[in-house]
Amino acid sequence: MANQGLHLVAVPIPGNYQFRDGESANYVYRLDYQSLKTKDKDSYLQLFADAVWVHIGEMAGWVYFRFKVTNGEAPEIYSDLESKIGKYQRVMLYLVIFLPIILLQINNLSAADRYGPFFMILQGLTALLMFLNFFGMIQLFIRIKKLKKTNYAKLHRTDPEM
Amino acid sequence: MEDKSISKHLPLTEATYYILLALVTPKHGYAVMQKAEEISQGTLRLAPGTIYGAFTTLEENKLISMVGKVGRRKMFQISEMGIRVLLGQIQRMEIMLQSVGKNFDFWQQVSAEEEKEEYD
Q: Among A86, A92, B48, B78, which residue's CB has the most CB atoms within a 10 Å radius?
């Protein structure tokens, strides 16, 4: 979309993305996942700013950055395997923590004595959440596994996994 | 041979090694990025996410410590423990280099490959 002149400007509310018209530009967008404490946040953002990443916004732990590509090489937020896997493991952890809450809610709803449409919708939504959670966990699991199997000759590691 | 509290951090990854080396004098994240690329002669280019994660882990493991803040940038420096870990890693790397130095079979193999290439 950036090539067409539309640029991501803000992520004010979950699910709501704002774009702005502008000149066509070769931007790369990357997302990091962090649970940043307030005291760490400004030095974190400053580090990215120093490395010429433009901070666009955040949403639910996801931090949006943009980089203007000049050399043809699209840069990454993570340059080595370990830290890259770490990001996906953080996301996975969040899903894992969230899962019992969803399961508990399903349990609560099925124990309810009412059958009205309101409760059926609630049950449906909770079931949907559960499936999305499982789906996310499976995708992450596959992604992490695939990363771990990466060809070591390509990356900055001196030690093979034990 | 090595103290357990040192050897549990070894071997260091390339990134960690250069970060620790760069932090012998206090620096902030981006300065470490630049220094690491310089002393690794371009073989190591660190990305910001990796640095942030490395700083967090190294600080947790007490191999570096935060020594101040300049504006929005946190400054870190290697700790005493970090220096010992670095020395442990350097010792290991010296042994690695010596292992190939004394390995006559390897060099024989290398020159055999080179000779083959000349005839191709």
A: B48
B30: nearest CB among A50, A76, A87: A50
Q: Using CA atoms, how far apart are residues A7 and A66, in angstroms rounded to an integer? A: 10
- Distance in angstroms (rounded) separating the CA atoms of residues A121 and A102: 15
For residue A32, the one-letter residue type is D
What is the interface pTM, i.e. ipTM, of the complex? 0.84
How confident is the model over A51-71, as pLDDT tens digits? 999 999 888 889 999 998 887
The answer to whether residues A86 and A133 belong to one domain is yes
Q: What is the pLDDT of residue A123?
A: 82
Asked if B45 is an interface residue toward chain A (Cβ–Cβ < 8 A), one would say yes
Region A83-102: what's the mean pLDDT?
90
Report which DSSP code applies to A154: G
Nearest-by-Cβ selection for A47 from B11, B48, B69: B48
Torsion-angle region of residue B82: left (phi > 0), alpha (psi -120 to 50) or beta?
A: alpha
Query: How does pLDDT run across A6-28, given as a tens digit for each residue?
Result: 577 666 666 667 777 666 678 88
How many domains does the structure of chain A reveal? 2
**Whether residue A108 is found in the same domain as residue A46:** no
Note down the domain range covering A12: 2-68
Residue B39 structure tokens: 């002393």
Of the residues A43, A68, A93, which one is the last residue of a structural domain?
Answer: A68
